[in-house]
């Protein structure tokens, strides 16, 4: 069973004729409400102060929007272009 | 405002904000889960606590709301600073 991650990454096709430097790994956000559906009852709760800071009362629903630069590539599926493994971390 | 009083003011205001946020989240949750008895109990407890905190705050620092939703001392305190956006 895949572990929940708040973003997913993929490697776009890189052509020889691309005019700009290629973006080897791109990412998109996948917040928890995509998977959660109807919120179950009696989920554990934050304390009041932490809830105010985190923006939600339930840790299960906490979904920070990480900076795109901070997103490390995560490849759950086998790669279709193995030889194009991303050497450095640069992303958009 | 004196430094110490300012700290107390900020702390009590922050506590009010926290409890308001928890009440807001519980309210939104109860919109879709009207049958959750524990959430309802928590909501009622916090609502009572919030009313009590508001009375304490207003006794010390003046009304939080106007148009009759808060009491005021003499002279009319609503026009005194600091206003909410100045805090």
Task: Tell me what you see in this structure.
The complex is a heterodimer of chains A (92) and B (87). Chain A is mostly loops and 92 residues long. Chain A has a domain at 7-61. Helices cover 12% and strands 9% of the residues of chain A. Chain A contains two helices and two strands; from the N terminus they run ββαα. Chain A has a two-stranded antiparallel ribbon. Chain A starts with 6 loop residues before the first strand and ends in a 38-residue tail after the last helix. Chain B is an all-alpha fold and 87 residues long. Chain B is 63% helix and 0% strand. Chain B contains two helices and no strands. Chain B has helices at residues 3-32, 37-61. In chain B, helix 1 packs antiparallel against helix 2. The mean pLDDT of chain B is 92. At the A-B interface, helix 2 of A face helix 1 of B.
| Largest interface: chains, residues each | A-B, 11 and 15 residues
Q: How much beta of chain A, percentage-wise?
A: 5-15%
Radius of gyration of chain B: 15 Å
Instruction: Give start-end ranges of low-pLDDT stretches of chain A.
Output: none
Q: How is the quaternary structure best described?
A: heterodimer
Total number of beta strands of chain B: 0
Q: Keywords, please?
A:
heterodimer, A: 92 residues, little secondary structure, two-stranded antiparallel ribbon, 2 strands, B: 87 residues, mainly alpha
Please describe the topology of this protein.
The complex is a heterodimer of chains A (92) and B (87).
Chain A: E1 7-10, E2 26-29, H1 33-36, H2 48-54
Antiparallel strand pairs in A: 1-2
Chain B: H1 3-32, H2 37-61
């Amino acid at each position: 069973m895949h572990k929940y991650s708040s973003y997913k990454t993929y490697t776009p096709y890189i052509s020889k004729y691309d005019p700009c430097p290629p973006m080897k790994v791109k990412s998109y956000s996948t917040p928890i409400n995509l998977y959660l559906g109807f919120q179950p009852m009696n989920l554990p709760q934050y304390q009041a102060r932490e809830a105010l800071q985190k923006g939600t009362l339930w840790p299960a629903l906490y979904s920070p929007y990480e900076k795109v630069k901070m997103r490390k590539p995560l490849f759950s599926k086998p790669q279709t272009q193995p030889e194009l493994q991303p050497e450095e971390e640069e992303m958009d | 405002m004196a430094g110490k009083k300012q700290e107390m003011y900020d702390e009590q205001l922050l506590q009010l904000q926290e409890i308001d946020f928890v009440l807001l989240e519980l309210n939104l949750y109860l919109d879709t889960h009207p049958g959750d008895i524990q959430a309802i109990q928590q909501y009622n407890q916090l609502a009572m606590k919030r009313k009590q905190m508001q009375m304490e705050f207003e006794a010390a620092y003046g009304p939080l709301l106007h148009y009759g939703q808060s009491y005021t001392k003499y002279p009319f305190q609503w026009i005194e600073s600091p206003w909410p956006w100045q805090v």
